[in-house]
Protein 1
Amino acid sequence: MKLKFIAQDLDFSAIVAQSGLNSPSVISIRVTDAKPDIITRILLNVLPFIESFIAEGALVSIDESGYRVRKIPVED
């Protein structure tokens, strides 16, 4: 099982993207209201759609309007 991170700090995604590795997966939460109940609701809504990407290795950015997925390793 690959290690996964959930963070609001974009540095984690940048480090993984530049590493050339295919793990760990990172979920970046980019919302204006980061109360735990709001983050939990957002994750419960999005996780079913991104679970397979996370299992394979991905950088996922989630905001109020939706989510974006980049598979890792990131290729230019």
Note: Residues 36-56 form the longest helix (21 residues).
Protein 2
Amino acid sequence: MKRKALSIFSVMALAGSLLAGCGSNAAAPAPSAPSNQEANSAGGNAQLEDQLVIAGNGATVEQLMKDEIFKKFNEKYPNVKLTYVSGVSTEIVAKVKAQKNAPQIDLTVIEGGEQDKGREEGLWEAITDKEVPNLAKVPEDLKVRDNSGVVVNFTPMGISYNSELVKEKNLPVPTSWNDLARPEVKGNITMTDIASNFGRSATIMLAYANGGSEKDMEPGFEKLKTIAGYMPTFAKSAAQLQQNLQNKSAAYTTWTMARSLTQKDAGLPIEFVFPQEGGNIVPNVATLVKGAKHPEAAKAFIDFLLTDEVQTMYATKLYYNPAVPVKLPDDVAKQLEFDRSKVVNFDYEVIGRNMSQWLDRFNKEIAPNAGK
């Protein structure tokens, strides 16, 4: 199977949001936007508005959207001019919040943690399977709180390691989150700080692996304090994690299966482990912005993201697990396997309430241990 050897990690290093458009080549003039009375639902006979502005991650995610998903959508709805705004999830939520009184974005596809922050801010419209029929195919364990969005794909968090370096140095193959705190791995770990989802999720799972949780983070911080002493510094981005694994300055990191498999496809000898204690998943959630100018087109697009065709694209090109049941090529299905019974569902409200306190503690107690 041919896949584009592009790094998915460059999205985390974006300095800002890039606005790029992708329009239809249809010769027929676009119809005017329908009134609310004319448009009923994406699943019915609603007339779609002639524009749709979507915000989501950049790099390979943006490329797949604009090169393939947009084109397929326009084959079905040629009148809708599609525009893509790229950025990281935190930037997108901040932009939607700043535009709250006059939304310029109709639909976002962002990580679950940031989506939940936006939910608490009241940024999203509720979505039902009457409006988005394919939502009925999404399993209950992937449903979003208050129907404030729709999971369109996901990937598990875990431990990735450079198999060549582990073999060269006779280092242990990790099976547990606690393996990151073993003395023999000292000098061979790279992690982001807890402001990043990678470092934050790992710290929460270190708490779970030692009797705690997001509601009792003491065991996680204790383990992280040890791990900090094994590293020269905490990485500032996913791109830096990738570089450290490539140049063999580190053998282990904490990130997602999708990122690990993408880099393995690009030639990096990376293996992914879903630890024995389990781990969280990182869902990508489509949301309809409250007060959006083009709500019917947005609902139709969300429904389209849940089709077998697009779900297969996510899996085969970006290694995201599908959000709905779909038959994948056998080799891809095997690569995406992990123990779903061990998924740990974080309470994002608890995380949101405590994040500033965790950051303060990290900066005072954990970060100073790095490089010692």
Note: Strands lie at 18-22, 51-56, 81-86, 107-111, 124-125, 150-162, 252-256, 270-273, 281-289, 321-322.
Protein 3
Amino acid sequence: MDAAYKALQAAGERVIGFAAGEPDFPTPEPIVRAAQAACADPALHHYTPTAGLPALRAAIAAKTERDSGLSVDPSQVLVTNGGKHAVANAFAVLCDPGDQVLVPAPYWTTYPEAIALAGGVPVPVPTDEDQGFRVSVEDLEAARSERTKVLVFVSPSNPTGAVYSAAEIEAIGHWALERGLWVVTDEIYEHLVYGRAEHHSMPVLVPELADRCVVVNGVAKTYAMTGWRVGWLIGPPDVVAAATNLQSHETSNVSNVAQAAALCAVSGDLSAVAEMRAAFDRRRRTIVAMLNRIEGVCCVEPEGAFYAFPSVKGLLGRRIRGQRPQTSAELAQLCIAEAKVAVVPGEAFGAPGYFRMSYALGDDDLAEGVERLGALFAEAEP
């Protein structure tokens, strides 16, 4: 969908995109200057340790304790080529062929693919808007089998923006502990929460689980650094050692210039993300209100990240401009063809019948895009 959006843009069309999963803000200037200085440092013109620059690993450990309360040694940190690389490394180390991994759905599209590439078997655990897109212990237990080895846990969530309460996280963490499972918890959106919602780290709330928990994070969302490709994995020493050995043969060290930029980011304050969060919060409320005014669309208010996840089930099967889309994927194709609006259909996240709509775009574009969808959907006939 993003490729179709860019192709139409290149052809001169006025297209509005809700598909991209990245902040629309530039990387803060001090971080850019740190990278510029790193380019001129001869020490960074050569190979550096696979696990990351020692100063960056120490800064990540300090940042983790500051932001989530999780105390780790720098040796428990592996710097990776973005958060996606950390996810892939985690499953490659934890999964043997045939191991089952519970993946609450809707899920970020990479999780099941990374699990499968590692030889594991992804087991989706469905949720819907009536649950606030949050999985329960009962749901997880019903999906568990004797082959279950790992649980994927994400809060705030991509694509739904769901945020779990401390009580819910504790219950899930203790359940995983009692069942002897590993947990891979993705905290990339930790600072993007709104209203009364709060981010909580599972190994902090359930410290007994820390020895079977892998935390994935990165600079991409917090510091508007998606293109810099710096993430990290935090875990028990044996997991980090194995993942480091694996990475040494895959990629060696992450770009030293990008690591220097990340060091500046995680060592600094959170003023930049506070400004972004205020803008996202405003857009969040706007997009939800506008979507809920469209007949056939229902959108739960997200509490985190920068995505709305509206249900479009009320539009499926209805006649719109000579077509009867039966799936959200077909409806998304109609949206870009007829309204020049790009959204991501729920099929990509294991949740047919929904759209993921990023509100990481300008206020005027956001309003115009939803208005275009409203005008198109107003033509729907039985």
Note: Residues 134 and 320 are 33 Å apart (CA to CA).
Protein 4
Amino acid sequence: MDFFETIMFPFKWLVSVIMVGFHEGLSAIGMPEASGWTWTLSIIGLVLVIRAALIPVFVKQIKAQRGMQLLQPDLKKLQDKYKGKTDQLSRQAMAQEQMAMYKKHGTNPFSACLPMLIQMPFFFALFTVLAGISTARDAGEGIGAMSHQQVTQFDDSTIFGATLSASLLHGGEGNLTAVWILSIIMILAMTASQFITQKQIMAKNMSEEAMASPFMRQQKMMLYILPIVFGVGGINFPIGVLIYWTTTNLWTMGQQFFVIRRMPTPGSPAAKALAERRAAKGLPALPILGGKKEEAGDAAAAAAVAQAKGQRIQPQRKNRKKK
């Protein structure tokens, strides 16, 4: 067993345990054990378990993203301060001030990638499990918690005529036309859902300052690069892996839709829309995830709504001392 397999072994075992657990549960309620739909629902169940476990990490990711967006004006000032200074001492000083700024506000640029990084071992584990199905079947072995009988069932199972262990690049047993059609549809769904998720964040949940920041330029690049990377890589993914990744992308898209509508970033178009909806119902603006800057953003959004409606804000009367 090489180093990579040693690292991936516990993840492969956990992935197979969850899949087998869902498979046995679905079989117990009457679904056929050898059906491709039973195994497909088991893969979807795997996604639900992993993503539900990652909800606390997702909340931290939201806070970190908003912290980074609120920091953009300060980061811009820091970059202007050291603009044109290329000596080692200046670069070191800038890095130290930047790290101190991140620490003070409890955020860093890597927090946004945390959920994806945590998911990647499970993704690779599922990929190696499904890619090794045919080999394990020929060798008369199981994979992780999957027995040889379950490996054989999975290898023979199909949906719409395509086997779950087949891929666009390597084909597989069964109807190759069905494999091609289903793989292409799943790859398009996987990349489209990823693109839409990132696009709605940039279009609705970022302030004007964040949109004009260097960080935003990187985000725009990733908006197009990541779907292309996964789209090209998808030709090598077994259909079961494409089902997993498409399902997790749809989960992410739903999460982001909820967050953007209910807990938008202060100063963003979504925050102004939320303030308008609350003002229309006669409700006060709510602070979003706490913090003075966020409360100020909400107050600004509420003021913008009031101004748009033509309401005149009465000045507060100052108490005068009696003569």
Note: The mean pLDDT is 79.
